[in-house]
Amino acid sequence: MDVVELVKSYGGVVLSSTLTARHVRPHLVEKAVAEGNVVRLRRRWVALPDADPLLRSAARTGVLLSCVTQAKRRGLWVLPKDEPAHVAARPHAGRVSVAASTVVHWRHPVVPRSPDALEDQIENVLALVALCQPQETALAIWESALRQGLVDPAAMRLLPLPAEAQMLLDIANPFADSGLETIVGPRLRWLGLRIVSQAWILGHRVDFLIGDRLVLQIDGGHHVGPQRTSDITHDAQLMLGGYHVIRVGYHQVINDWPGVQALITGAIARGLHRAA
Keywords of this protein's UniProt record, alphabetized (predicted)? Predict the structure, then answer.
């Protein structure tokens, strides 16, 4: 059995005991190490030389990738900011030798972790996100997981979730179109107006309908090229139909929310949210 191909089938990093269980004789592993085809990480793990650096680091330090680090790896909506690696320590792990900037989560998992896992299960990832991140950021990640069908809400309710995670599960909306919408919605509640997300108007969905006639559109990174042309066309149709459109971008929402809020409240003060 080819050692390199077998290690590759496990994502490039694997326990030596897993290879033994697959009937790979130890001398074949040592031969692959001597030839430089695989490298040994501590005593228990072997890896391909070009394996994922984060997986190699997790194996070397005895932790699992978790929280926002693993959420991003799973394709969930995570704010693109400079964030240190977040890892989970195994129960009774003792001292963990990781980089000083690494965030280590010691909480007991809600789902048991396999001894050969280097990436935390999604349920544990979400539970740690709920404890670690600000509420609106955590909610965006949770809604992203629900939107992608990575977790089942009914099954999640049966887990011993921390109170913070239970609260997110109660308020999460699986139909939110993006993390930006998740962040913006709660920020508008204080207005006391009817706010409908993903409202269907004139043949297209809009991100938010405030009152009867004020439309708030939020552009993510994909609003370029043909998508941008389609957006401009729909904006024109909305305005011809008697709606007022405010369109803002990602960086405005994340970095200049007061400016966005001023646009919205200014429009409301002028009565642009009301039907004629």
Answer: Endonuclease, Hydrolase, Nuclease
Q: Which one of 138, 171, 204 terminates a domain?
A: 171
- Residue 222 confidence (pLDDT): 59
Residues 126/71/114/108 CA torsion (nearest 10 deg): -40
State pLDDT tens for residues 26-70. Answer: 888 899 989 999 999 888 899 999 999 999 999 988 899 999 999
Q: Let me know if residue 86 belongs to a domain.
A: yes
| Stated pTM of the model | 0.81
Give which of 122, 86, 90 is closest to 106, Cα–Cα: 90
Give the number of domains in the chain.
3
The residues that bridge with 104 in the sheet, in sequence order, are 87
Place of tokens 């708030």: 216
Residue numbers of the domain that contains 46 = 3-51
Q: How far apart are CA 156 and CA 65, in angstroms?
A: 20
Q: Report the alpha-carbon angle 152-158-162, nearest 5.
A: 100
Residues 76 and 157 in one domain: yes
CA dist 204 → 28, 51, 103, 147, 275 (Å): 60, 44, 43, 20, 19
Average pLDDT over residues 215-244: 81
pLDDT digits (tens, 9 = 90+) for 183-221: 888 889 899 999 998 889 988 889 999 999 999 999 876
Distance between CA atoms of residues 85 and 159, nearest Å: 26
20 and 70 belong to one structural domain:
no
